[in-house]
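[step 3/7] fold_predict: job queued, chain A
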Amino acid sequence: MPSGPPRDTLAAMSHAYVNRLCATLPGAECCDPWGGGHDVWKVGGKMFVSIGTMDTGMSVKCPDIETAAMLIDAGEGERAPYFHRSWIHVPWGADETVLRHRIENSYRLIRAGLTKKAQAALAAFPEDWPDRKA
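[step 4/7] structure written:
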């Protein structure tokens, strides 16, 4: 018999948790670009987290295909369906530390790829993130 909350409860808790964390990041905005209930978080118009309509987890950007493959091989995520191979899907139920780390890395990666002007328009990354009220 599995321990812990039912899968639907885990998904709801993780989905809400990820949305709360993403909302605290400078310049982060949530949208539904494809309709149907996707939560896509962007900074500077570029996506860094996606939660699909199936609500099985979140997809995040990795620095490259090799890093994504290494994380998949290590069991930290799965191949993100419909995304480039440099993205991984982190299923709900993953440790909150893993969720925070993947969100932060994806956000920093996308933010660093913005133009210098767009980066300068954003507030500094909070030193106490994610300990701020999420």
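[step 5/7] annotate
Residues 63 and 86 are 7 Å apart (CA to CA).
Strands lie at 28-31, 39-43, 46-51, 57-61, 78-79, 87-91.
exit 0
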